[in-house]
């Protein structure tokens, strides 16, 4: 399948900025998903195709952040990887069983949950810490599985959910949380893409050029994330979450 020049330019540009946004805070699929749907790709296939396109960007961002990789309290990096792979597989299988109509309805509610969790994450973290008695390891494992399942099911807003979860689990430094988010995103996305491919829902003519653009954007985004003050980055994440949630709710009207 040969793409028209205008279609190719649109999806490549969306993927370029999506790769940078994912390296910064997550949410790049809010560019790739609408771009693919606008060019005629059904919602479930658009989500799967956009996820496949962003995989190299996740891998690149995870590698660039490798010096900041540190597991949440009570866990190891290997545990994060293994649990993330299982969760990503579960979410991907669930997506294959979801109709396009149901997927459209579910999306904005998932985004709303992600945005609220990140916005109130620090307060929730203090509440959990005040009431926990050494069960952080179990809480961490369950949280990683759930957010990985979310990411395997719906790539949009995945970074926001992960950042919120890692903050709640005691990762105080936002750049360290970003490093873990990029690693977990790469692992679960790799597993999910394999399942999407076996399910035949990825449109490779769109995915391949988008993957090249997303990789370039991912490397650029890491440099920008390291330079930004954490307060600015956190506020930008919350604003991005609010805007994208509103857009998807508006689309349901």
Automatic annotation (TrEMBL):
<dbReference type="GO" id="GO:0005886">
    <property type="term" value="C:plasma membrane"/>
</dbReference>
<comment type="similarity">
    <text>Belongs to the 4-toluene sulfonate uptake permease (TSUP) (TC 2.A.102) family.</text>
</comment>
<keyword id="KW-1133">Transmembrane helix</keyword>
<keyword id="KW-1003">Cell membrane</keyword>
<dbReference type="Pfam" id="PF01925">
    <property type="entry name" value="TauE"/>
</dbReference>
<protein>
    <recommendedName>
        <fullName>Probable membrane transporter protein</fullName>
    </recommendedName>
</protein>
<keyword id="KW-0472">Membrane</keyword>
<feature type="transmembrane region" description="Helical">
    <location>
        <begin position="102"/>
        <end position="121"/>
    </location>
</feature>
<feature type="transmembrane region" description="Helical">
    <location>
        <begin position="44"/>
        <end position="65"/>
    </location>
</feature>
<feature type="transmembrane region" description="Helical">
    <location>
        <begin position="208"/>
        <end position="226"/>
    </location>
</feature>
<feature type="transmembrane region" description="Helical">
    <location>
        <begin position="232"/>
        <end position="250"/>
    </location>
</feature>
<dbReference type="InterPro" id="IPR052017">
    <property type="entry name" value="TSUP"/>
</dbReference>
<keyword id="KW-0812">Transmembrane</keyword>
<feature type="transmembrane region" description="Helical">
    <location>
        <begin position="142"/>
        <end position="163"/>
    </location>
</feature>
<feature type="transmembrane region" description="Helical">
    <location>
        <begin position="77"/>
        <end position="96"/>
    </location>
</feature>
<feature type="transmembrane region" description="Helical">
    <location>
        <begin position="183"/>
        <end position="201"/>
    </location>
</feature>
<dbReference type="InterPro" id="IPR002781">
    <property type="entry name" value="TM_pro_TauE-like"/>
</dbReference>
<keyword id="KW-0813">Transport</keyword>
């Amino acid at each position: 399948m040969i793409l028209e020049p205008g279609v190719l330019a649109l999806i490549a540009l969306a993927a370029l900025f999506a790769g940078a946004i994912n390296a910064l805070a997550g949410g790049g699929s809010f560019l790739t998903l609408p771009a693919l749907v606008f060019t005629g790709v059904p919602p479930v296939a658009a989500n799967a195709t956009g996820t496949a396109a962003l995989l190299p960007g996740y891998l690149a961002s995870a590698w660039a952040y490798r010096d900041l990789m540190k597991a949440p309290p009570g866990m190891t990096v290997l545990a994060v990887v293994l649990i993330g792979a299982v969760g990503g597989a579960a979410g991907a299988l669930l997506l294959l069983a979801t109709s396009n109509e149901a997927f459209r309805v579910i999306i904005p509610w998932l985004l709303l949950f992600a945005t609220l969790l990140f916005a109130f994450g620090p307060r929730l973290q203090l509440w959990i810490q005040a009431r926990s008695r050494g069960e952080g390891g179990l809480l961490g494992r369950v949280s990683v599985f759930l957010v990985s399942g979310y990411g395997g099911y719906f790539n949009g807003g995945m970074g926001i959910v992960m950042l919120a979860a890692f903050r709640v689990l005691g990762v105080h430094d936002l750049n360290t949380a970003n490093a873990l988010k990029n690693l977990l995103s790469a692992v679960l996305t790799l597993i999910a893409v394999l399942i999407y491919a076996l399910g035949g829902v990825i449109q490779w003519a769109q995915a391949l050029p988008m993957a090249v653009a997303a990789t370039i954007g991912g490397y650029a985004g890491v440099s920008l994330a390291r330079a930004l003050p954490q307060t600015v980055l956190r506020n930008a994440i919350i604003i991005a979450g609010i805007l994208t949630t509103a857009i998807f709710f508006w689309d349901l009207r």
